[in-house]
Amino acid sequence: MGISTEAVQQLPSTGAEGPCFHCGLPVPEGSNYSAEINGIDRSMCCPGCEAVAQAIVAGGLNDYYKFRDTQNATGRELVPHFLDELKLYDNPKVQQSFVRHEEGEGDDVREASLIIEGIVCAACVWLNEHHIASMSGVLDMQINYSTHRARLRWDNSIVSLSDVLAAISRIGYLAHPYDPGRQQLLFEKQRKQSLRRLGLAGIFGMQVMMLAVALYFGQRSGMDAGIKNFFQWLSLLLTLPVLLYSAQPFFLGAWRDIKNLRMGMDVPVTLGIAAAFIASVIHSITGSGEIYFDSVVMFVFFLLVARHFEMAGRKRAAESSEALVRQMPAMATRLVNDREEVIPAVELGTGDHLLIRPGEHIPADGIVTKGRSSIDESLLTGESLPVSRSTGEQVIGGSINIESPFTMEVLHSGEDTRLSGILRLLDKAQAEKPRISLQADRIVSFFVGGVLLLATIVGIYWWVHEPAQWLAITIAVLVVTCPCALSLATPTAMTAATGNLTTLGLLTTRGHALETLVQATHVIFDKTGTLTRGILTLKDIRTYTDRTPDECLAMAAALENFSEHPLARAIIQYAGDIQPPVVSEVSNVPGSGLSGKLVSGKLDGDTLYIGSPKYILASTQHSLDGHELAHLGENGDTVVILASRQALLAAFILGDECRDDAAGVVASLQQAGKQVMLLTGDHPQAAQFVARQCGIEQVMSELSPQDKLQQVKRLQQQGAVVAMVGDGVNDAPVMAQAQVSIAMGGGTQLALTSGDMILLSEQLGHLPAGLEVARRTLSIIRQNLLWAIGYNVIALPVAAMGLLQPWMAALGMSFSSLFVVMNALRLTRMPARIPNRGPAQGGH
Q1: Is residue 158 helix, strand or coil?
Q2: N or C: fewer beta carbons within 10 Å in the chain?
């Protein structure tokens, strides 16, 4: 007979022995697995039950526990139930909050972000990636070692998400959908557990070390055999808790590696600990030989210290990207018929109207429908100053409302928001491995096997030549050469660097981007929207009659209201609140100009013309000779002329201004040894003017997208490494051809897709800063790899010659790993220098 739900609900919530709330099996003593069900924290016997219970709650199926009348008292069929209940994650409603359907792919191609629990080293990452990637239907599986977040792409018509999660569980790990709150709880749980293991190892280790000192001096002064025997057995008893509890992660990791036929980094460490303990037990029983209980506890203590600080280091390295995740609020205030209702943000849909109060995070991308306020977008764009947003302007989900309440209409929510897109790109970049990392991984894949083979050879040698020393020396070789530092060298540095750049507003989307950016010999800029702002502005109004500039502007706006051309929009925007006269019988010649009869005003009844100089000449027969009009466009500006039948009235000079920091950026790149070029489709005058403003000597204009592509290929054939900076759809082919590409954050979606890096801040000054971070990142990675290799080259012969005690080997290996992590963390606090805005060259 099963256990009734009522009986289970009367048990203490957590921390007590008793049946598991999910399966009914006894909860082991000291177990701290639990899940919140119907507002109460319930005890679970294992991570499997915890995951299933959380999946049931996440799927909105809490009533399963409310109405069930029996439980399985024996726990039989627990694993089949676990696998069956993972199918909750296949429910479309459950997937809505964390699964994205990729556009442009098949209807069944999906992408999700997961957390993999149980990862302790790079070998765990390798095992999960290769095991899952080999499944039919899995398109890609990449894991970020620093954050333990996995990016999974799969074809749902071939394999389901529950099948993938079950496959991960079968190799000894636990996977669940990424949730920032749960990940924080998981980290806190791991941190507390790490401190408990470390504290126990430290307390019992000190006692064992005190007994070891007593035995050492007692052996020299003739200690009584009975006391010596008592101290040895007492050391054994004190070592057991350290071995069974504190060292448990190493043994579990080693068993998992061996079971999956993978030689991970826990294998040599565990062999060393086990060999030292077993030999010490045997010697304690026989009363002869050395005992190494002190070395065992020191191994475990030093290794735990290294892993604890490594865990904290990885968390710190990932803080920038995690801060982005926490930007999206859990709840939102929706307006329905002027009535407010608070709902989960995951339930928001396109067209919903929201109220955003001061201090609140904006829960979705949208457009302001009423009100005006300042918005803090610093974490998303790197722009430190708040930006003003009013009715009709767009706001980004995850940004913060600073000043006044406003209402907005939702355009994109959930996985479709800009913030979610940034996080996907960031996850992808941090999970992808640059070439230097792949080389290190290849070395590590053979390293553990080589260590075991070498330890065997060293052990045999010392067994033959000096049997009393063979065990201690073999243990030292096993422990001192652990390749942890080699595996940590790259991922920790990459995570720290990409996080630093993200806070700056420069998003890295490809793993190779930083490495290739440093190697680039040529930096090619597009003009419009890249070196310039990409927005036409009215620079000047020249009048040629007694009409004032405002009167001419009003007449121009009256005609331009009938056009959607960018030039027309710029004139209308500049006119602002000026009341335009009424015009009728408007005629539009696309790409040339407009004409219309003036109904009101001083020129009532006259026909007005506005457009290009050629259009005015053809329509009115007014001669431009002798006028300054013939020279106004020499700097690349666009001239729009307003005329009546009787005379030329005014000339409107419109242009696209260079970005304030463009000249300083070009100078910084040139000082860094990069050749800077400008490739544009604009006419020569505009291209040359911008080039003079920015200090660029190599300019090519009137280029089609194909012409730009051919120029980049020509440079590459000559051995150049090209970095392309652009924003428009015409730049996408060239950006794909360049070895590394940087897309402006305000550019088209196609250009952003082609970009290896995205300048979210739209501040060109962040580009040289990014180059500096990239250079420092590669330098630190090389330092880490050089340290890891150099350490092993020196430590291995020293250990093999018997010059290292086992505890000294453990200390050296731990210090090696800590050095690599701490060195990488320098990238998180490295100030990114932005070049001063250089003085414009040339000008009006």
Answers
A1: coil
A2: N
Alpha helices in 329-398 (DSSP H): 378-381
pLDDT exceeds 90 at position 487:
no
Q: What are φ and ψ of residue 353, in 5° steps?
A: -105, 130
Token pair of 779 as six digits: 């330098």
Contact criterion met (CB below 8 Å) for 777 and 434: no
Using one digit for the tens of pLDDT, what is the confidence trace for 118-141?
A: 777 666 777 788 888 888 889 888
Catalytic position from the list 257, 365, 427, 526: 526
- Beta bridge partner(s), residue 218: none
Give pLDDT tens digits for 336-372: 887 888 887 877 888 899 999 888 888 889 999 988 8
Structure tokens at 116: 């993999």
Give the pLDDT score at 329: 79
Residue 509 pLDDT more than 90? no
Give the integer Cα–Cα distance in Å for 160 and 154.
8
- Rg of the chain in Å (alpha carbons): 34
In the three-class reduction of DSSP (H, G, I as helix; E, B as strand; rest coil), residue 200 is classed as helix
Distance CA 131, CA 787 (A): 31
**Dist. CA 35–CA 25, nearest whole Å:** 15
More confident residue, 178 or 520: 520
Neighbours of 627 (CB within 10 A): 16
Measured CA to CA, the distance from residue 831 to residue 200 in angstroms comes to 40
Neighbouring residues of 41: CB distance < 8 A, sequence distance ≥ 6: 13, 14, 34, 35
